[in-house]
């Protein structure tokens, strides 16, 4: 049996014990068997236990926004907080660092978004946001887009619009979720040929849907500000403003899920700042701590904050506002601001990525098109013979399923690490990436 206390293990032992004991997430165990076992990271790079070096091309799950060389101030803040007060259960008391983080974030969010919960991850933040919206309105239904992802827990996965929702539905779906169409074109359907048309038609569809469902049954419309894992989709001009207006008209809470795009990913601090709106609730996670610590955020506007001053919030968790995670979040946000990483994403990363993505789209028949918003890019992969996407939106394979396996293997061989979510290929390097780094290993 393994020597649990020896300082290091042989690589073969690691793989053998992984096979014996480690379960994959989402897919079957085979998902993780062929994946590298990581040993360490530096800058934008990761190394596996064989010594292979990878450029982390999607910040893992679009989360390690600050790369792997943890800023010394962040390390120090975590250490200091550990020594000072390693834990405080939010149901009993408050901490200095929780107050300071909430205060800092309230300054970074526009308008009167000024009340904060700090759950531990994106799914949990969305669960809490859904709970708040339902309790605030006394209504039950939540409207979400198809082609969205809101998390792996029951309600968040039922809220999800992509094929992963099936895992929740196959068990016992959480009740009260209604789907509407994403206003962007898919491979099968389009609301129109111009943004004006797409916006007008999709909003018309949405309003009719609200009326058919019964406006006084709808607690919230919950959308990703820009669709993340579904393919880096910015809403057509005027759409989000129209959704905001419908929410105002029918007393519906607007929740913007910024778990992936918050904290600078799209070249603005918040994704919803690409539009002229103020959401009622904003959820975010990942980039808040550079993913160094599990911490998320539910930020609410003053009318909701005031409501819950006198009514029970009705949501909580042991690790809510964990002080060490808050300390790390606070220093990461400070680091982002000091290094002006949002500007870097927009002015330095976006043009370089745009150039490469255009080149790929031009050069390869298997790339239908590409798009970039800040440090968030995406290529649409198609079968060059038919022009059809290499995978359907329901997660099923199209004509040549083995192509994706070959593609994944080629990325690994060429030193790229990251998630491949066909029919899209995401490009999302750390926000600290510099122009002189080897951006694209594939040519
Ligand atoms: N919402 C969005 C938009 C996401 O992209 C994700 C994760 O990728 C989540 C929610 C779920 O976050 P987590 O995996 O931290 O629970």
From TrEMBL:
GO cellular component terms, A-Z: cytosol
Family under the similarity heading: Belongs to the class-III pyridoxal-phosphate-dependent aminotransferase family.
Organism lineage string: Eukaryota, Sar, Alveolata, Dinophyceae, Suessiales
Residues annotated as transmembrane: none
Name of the protein this chain belongs to: Uncharacterized protein
GO molecular function: pyridoxal phosphate binding; transaminase activity
Zinc keyword on record: no
Alphabetized PANTHER family for the sequence: AMINOTRANSFERASE, AMINOTRANSFERASE CLASS-III
Organism, as annotated: Polarella glacialis (Dinoflagellate)
